[in-house]
């Protein structure tokens, strides 16, 4: 289905240059002189490579229809991540580059949303938030009591995030899987 470039949103899957791309971010840019254009950050569904493209706002782009179904994460072997369809119990694998940096947040038995284009699995989306345990957190620097001050912490999956000063080792926190950012302290 053809859509105008200015209607592209994050999460859309588009066809561009004979490849299928997942849109990660969009930004409409208004130069001081000339027409507006849209800057699109996108990831190739097959190779996992990222690119940035600029489209004129009036330009048309092919948006692909994506079918979604639940799948369960099984395990990771080398650079392949194995999943199982929750209904048919068929197993399929995706390259780690297709999932991207959020693959570090996969947990045993996690239910993800598998995305199919023309019956072929093209990607998977993790839940937006996961609960992780902080295994190491820097000490609070005296005098840093402003609410906007954050300190680095290491999670159980070896990912570093910035957390508020009151978070210490052993604390369970909610993390955004899209950008590995602290959301809140997990409720016990």
Through-space gap between termini = 46 Å
Tally of domains: 3
The major sheet is characterized as: 6 strands, antiparallel
Provide the low-confidence segments as ranges: none
Strand order across the largest sheet: 1-6-2-3-4-5
Main attributes of the structure:
188 residues, 6-stranded antiparallel β-sheet, mainly beta, OB fold (Dihydrolipoamide Acetyltransferase, E2P), 5-stranded antiparallel β-sheet
Word description of this protein:
This protein has 1 helix and 16 strands. By secondary structure, it is an all-beta fold. It has 3 domains: 62 residues, SH3 type barrels, CATH 2.30.30; 59 residues, OB fold (Dihydrolipoamide Acetyltransferase, E2P) (Beta Barrel); 57 residues, OB fold (Dihydrolipoamide Acetyltransferase, E2P). A 6-stranded antiparallel sheet has the order 1-6-2-3-4-5, with no helix packed on it. Strands 9-8-7-10-11 form a 5-stranded antiparallel sheet. A 5-stranded antiparallel sheet has the order 14-13-12-15-16, with no helix packed on it. The longest helix is centred in the middle third of the chain and has 4 residues. The model has no long low-confidence stretch (mean pLDDT 85).
SSE blueprint:
Blueprint: E1 2-4, E2 13-16, E3 19-29, E4 37-44, E5 50-56, E6 60-63, E7 67-77, E8 80-85, E9 91-95, H1 96-99, E10 111-117, E11 120-125, E12 129-137, E13 151-155, E14 160-163, E15 172-176, E16 181-185
Antiparallel strand pairs: 1-6, 2-3, 2-6, 3-4, 4-5, 7-8, 7-10, 8-9, 10-11, 12-13, 12-15, 13-14, 15-16
